[in-house]
Amino acid sequence: MNEEGSPRGGESGTPPRGASPAHHASDIAGRTVAWVDFGGCGPPLLALHGTFGRGSVFAPLARCAEGRFRIIAPDLRGHGHSARAEDYGARAFVADAAAFVEHLGLGPLPVLGHSRGGVVAFQLAAAYPETVSSLIVEDVGAVLRRPEVAHPVLDVRGWPRSAASREELGAAIEAAGVPDGGYFLQSAVRRRTPEGTRWELLFDWDDMMAVQDSGMGDWWADWLGSSCPALLLRGGESPMLSAAAAREMCRRRSRTRLVEFPGAGHWVHDDDAEGVAEAIADFLAR
Question: Superkingdom of this entry's organism (predicted)?
Fold first, then answer.
């Protein structure tokens, strides 16, 4: 089966400033891991996406980061072009991130995590402190469950996985229960099949239920389990991390700074890419 948008093999050097992102696929700990190096100058920053995402979702942030830091973003297990897995437990994601950093020989380095990837990031800092020099957590709290979060899990069982066109796939996803399917469509690719061209999602809905479920819980011990400098980013209109919860995270963990983005939702790096890039660059400079 052929598809458009598959990663290129190889692990060549850093792309020159202004170059297109370089996509790679590596065998790490016996599993295929797809990742994108957005290139440019500045210190490398590992970026971990949230559920339903892939490394390429950080493209707008990477453009704004040009000359300030260089984003390297893997597709987490079961997402994007990385291999699916039997285990979507929290510790499996953390072990993957540690193995990825070791494979590239980049640690210790700053780590950014959005949503579910944010939980992975601060758990990585707690479990593998030699890997993380500083921590940037985007719009996720130390507790991810009801009642602290009104809707921590999106029930996507049985949702459509493919359609004849990208537009039809987006409409079908929206009809299933979300007002805007654009985020999901970032993981859609066009494939040529014996039945003709189809647009298909790179993830499996049942896998995504397992990913969400493994993120549920009280993670205070992990949040407080590292001592590196930390930056907490919160969308002012986000339903996932309340202002009170964000302030409590900063109060209880030393060397933690909070930056809020009025008007931004859960995907702060999309709603205010320039603002997030500036906040990260300032944090790294400090």
Answer: Bacteria
pLDDT score recorded for residue 18: 52
Is residue 131 in a domain?
yes
Any domain includes 87: yes
pLDDT at residue 150 in the model: 85
- Establish if 107 belongs to a structural domain: yes
Tell me how far apart the alpha carbons of residues 259 and 61 are, in angstroms, rounded to a whole number. Answer: 16
Residue 117 sits in which domain range?
2-7+15-148+217-285
Residue 41 falls inside a structural domain: yes
Q: How many domains does the chain have?
A: 1
pTM above 0.70, yes or no: yes
CA dist 10 and 21 (Å) reads 13
Whether residue 201 contacts residue 161, with contact meaning beta carbons closer than 8 Å, is answered with yes
- What are the φ and ψ backbone dihedral angles of 105, each rounded to 5 degrees? 65, 35
Range scoring the smallest mean pLDDT among 127-131, 178-182, 259-263: 178-182
Angle of CA points 171, 118, 18, to nearest 5°:
75
Q: What is the CATH number of the domain that holds 245?
A: 3.40.50.1820
- Residue 190: pLDDT band with limits 50, 70, 90: very high
Query: Which backbone phi and psi does 277 adopt, to 5 degrees?
Result: -60, -40
H helix or E strand, kind and range, residue 24: strand 22-28
Tell me which residue of 61, 179, 58 sits closest to 117, measured CA to CA: 58
